[in-house]
Specification:
This protein has about 350 residues and is mainly beta. It is built from one helix and 15 strands, in the order αβββββββββββββββ. It has a 15-stranded antiparallel beta sheet that branches. Strand 14 (about 315-325) and strand 15 form a beta hairpin. The longest helix has 17 residues, at about 15-30.
Length: about 350
């Protein structure tokens, strides 16, 4: 179930006592507005460009959280989500069956003190009642922590975002928040953006590590870098995203127990398009070169998805076919063909 926000997407910081009172109101608003759908902040995604169909789709109208004393330059938002799951062999123990409920609460405060500055802060509180702590995976629970906190400076077609934020591009097969999990992914770092409908992003970041009982934080230094172009007007009804990602770690250990550095460079492109009559396709190809201590890296991967969504049948059922390929070890070439039927208003499992 989702609760809503109104206003620009961006992000920010806590603003003294006002922010403290605002966070208190988040809980009250959750009780009063449980029936409203919502959308969380997304610094790395432009929802006018790409919507990943394999994530849970938010339906209905977005409703604002109303509070009379709240100034016009401030916005509250909240999202509530729950899902019941069962595992028949938890922790790979035959007969160890657990039925549990995954809960997730996001609450955020956005401020817009000037036309060129936006600030945002968002908390997360997720739990897995019914699942013993010793069996709960790291992405199931995180007790009241900071999910996003960033400042966005923007003027015309230029933007710069600094702080903890989301990075999500295209179908999110390579870079995304993994929203199906109870705890979605965020990064600490910096992002610069040039352009609007046709744009290029540059970022330097480090992924945030989740600590269920202490503050989430990233490792030492910035280790993940990228440049991503998004072209939406060059070809009608088509989005083209060329990209280059670089991962660099100062110290890793190879299979031969030799310590060294890791450097991976991943160039590629993704193309997605909607065709008249409800047909669509999405294709991605990427190469990877680099080194991992004393081992060299030479790999490639890609996929092609094509589907049809019925616009005339209730629940809009969707038929999807997908082919995946990935190399790696020269003796193990991985490929798969997947066929699924789902609907756009239900929760569907994203491709791995």
């Amino acid at each position: 179930m989702f609760l809503a926000k109104k206003g620009e997407r961006s992000s920010g910081k806590t603003v003294g006592r006002t922010a403290g009172r605002a966070l208190t109101v988040l809980g009250l608003a959750a009780i009063l507005l449980l029936g409203s759908p919502a959308r969380a902040q997304m610094s790395g995604e432009d929802k006018r460009v790409v919507s990943y169909l394999d994530y849970p789709q938010i339906q209905g109208k977005v409703q604002p959280l109303q509070w009379a004393p709240l100034p016009k330059w401030m916005t509250l938002d909240m999202q509530l989500r729950g899902r019941m799951e069962s595992q028949s062999s938890d922790d790979y123990i035959s007969g160890n069956e657990e039925i549990y409920f995954l809960t997730r609460v996001w609450g955020g405060l956005e401020i817009r003190p000037t036309p060129w500055l936006t600030g945002y802060i968002q908390f997360i509180d997720v739990h897995a009642p019914g699942e013993p702590a010793k069996y709960a995976s790291p992405n199931m629970r995180d007790t009241f922590d900071l999910r996003q906190a960033f400042l966005q400076f923007h003027k015309k077609n230029l933007a710069f975002i600094a702080g903890r934020q989301e990075l999500r591009y295209g179908s999110e097969r390579l870079v995304g928040i993994s929203d199906w999990t109870n705890i979605s992914r965020t990064w600490d770092g910096f992002l610069g953006r040039i352009g609007d409908k046709n744009r290029v992003d540059f970022f330097a970041s480090s992924v945030v590590t989740v600590h269920p009982t202490s503050l989430d934080k990233h490792g030492a230094g910035l280790t993940f870098f990228g440049a991503v172009g998004t072209l939406t007007t060059w070809v009608p009804h088509t989005v083209v995203q060329p990209f280059v990602y670089v991962k660099a770690f100062p110290r890793v250990e190879s299979q031969q127990k030799i310590f060294g550095t890791e450097t991976e460079v991943t160039p590629g492109a993704e193309v997605s398009s909607t065709i008249a009559g409800g047909f669509y396709f999405d294709a991605l190809g990427a190469l990877q070169r680099g080194s991992y201590s004393n081992d060299s890296i030479r790999a490639g991967a890609g996929y092609v998805k094509a589907g049809y969504t019925s616009q005339k049948i209730y629940w809009k059922p969707r038929l999807l076919g997908e082919y995946d390929y990935a190399s790696g070890n020269p003796t193990l070439i991985r490929s798969a063909l997947v066929l699924s039927i789902s609907n756009t208003q239900a929760i569907t499992t994203p491709s791995a």
